[in-house]
Amino acid sequence: MNSAHAPQTDANPLSGLKVLELGQLIAGPFAAKTLADFGAEVIKIEPPGSGDPLRQWRLLKDGTSVWWQVQSRNKKSLAMDLRQPEAQAIVRQLVAEADVLVENFRPGAMESWALGPDDLLQLNPRLIMLRISGYGQTGPYRDKPGFGVVAEAMSGLRHLTAEPGRVPVRVGVSIGDTLAALHGVVGVLLALHERARSGRGQVIDVALYEAVFNCMESLLPEYSAFGAVREPAGSALPGIAPSNAYRCQDGGYALIAGNGDSIFKRLMSAIGRQDLADDPALAHNAGRVAQVETIDAAIGQWTAGLSVAQVLSVLDAAAVPAGRIYTVADIAADPHYLARGMIEQLKLYDGSELAVPGIVPKLSRTPGLHRHNAPLQVGQDTDAVLRDIGLTPAQIAALHERGIVA
Questions:
Q1: pLDDT tens readout for residues 318-359
Q2: Is 177 a catalytic residue?
Q3: Which among 74, 197, 214, 376 has the fewest CB atoms less than 10 Å away?
């Protein structure tokens, strides 16, 4: 949808699901955003005044981060000071009617407000409580502050993201938070499925470091079986050949993955190295790994004489997986992104347009939908949410006067 206020629909797979989001920044809000994209009603609780710090992160448009438009689309904003007992009482009222609560505070914070699982599941036994933290709700590190970048390091990912002998670098986005959020969404959907049978809710405990560690492929079993500690390999893929980035004549790089047996033969034929294509020692991955330097040198010599576009044209014709390294400018202009609806144009409240990522995954019959923009003002839905749970105008006014809500 290109409208800031798309029509409501009951076709979304999570229509009717009520979600309460507590927390801020990335992991918890990303999980709630994903649920909202597919029809869940998400009430986001923000601190009065400043709101979620993400509102002020990175580049701002008219005083608000453009990232906010992605992270908080389809949500309602309820501004409330959770440190106040009256606010905690309102959370309990909301929980009584909620299906899911998402929080990413440090372990123990919710319990200190009498909003922990023991309290909330007694109030609403069907509640599914998603808790995202750096190290999880148990274990010796549970009380340490944990951010995504630390989780990425602890999981083993940061050790691998480097050229050999050089300082490890971070992935350019908050991948640890996002992976934790997606694991959290999987957990919510699993718990909803189980609740349909048992009628009971449960707690989902997601640790940032565990979410990243879950994606580390054969890292641990290779160490367990062989004592092998995988080391940084730059753009190469150790143990799988050939797969690398190769410099081209125009200074760009072509990413080439010729690591399938038949693909390798087509790749070698395409670059004029029929001798390598026909070499029985290179017919399978193990043999290619043993001679990966020779293979990489042959490919690199070929790409050095052609532009990136020329390399990709030859390899596309040979059905060899290859691509170039995209900048965001490339993404915004790419016809495949556009054809797949991955560049969505929002109309903001001031009438201007903003490009944001489209919704994934793509469901054929009940796709996700941009129903409305992120809340512009902190607490712009406060009064409406409070009315919905039965508070009178006088009660709401009193809460405003005392600074408990905004």
A1: 999 999 999 999 999 999 999 999 999 999 988 999 999 999
A2: yes
A3: 197
Q: Where are the domains of the chain?
A: 18-215+334-401, 243-247+253-324
- Sheet of strand 243-247, all strands in order from the earlier edge strand to the far edge: 243-247, 253-257, 322-324
- Which residue is catalytic, options 81, 99, 177, 205? 177
The pTM assigned to this predicted structure is 0.92
CATH of domain 243-247+253-324: 3.30.1540.10
pLDDT digits (tens, 9 = 90+) for 267-280: 999 999 999 999 99
Q: Find where tokens 């949500």 sit.
A: 75
With tokens 């923000």, the residue in question is 46
Amino acid type, 274: Q
User: What gap in Å lies between CA 379 and CA 377, rounded to an integer?
Assistant: 6
Q: Which residues of 326-353 are buried (b: 16+ CB within 10 A; e: fewer)?
A: eeeeeeeeeeebeeeebbbebebeeeee
Query: Under a CB-based contact definition with an 8 Å cutoff, are residues 94 and 82 in contact?
Result: no
Write the class of the CATH domain 18-215+334-401.
alpha beta
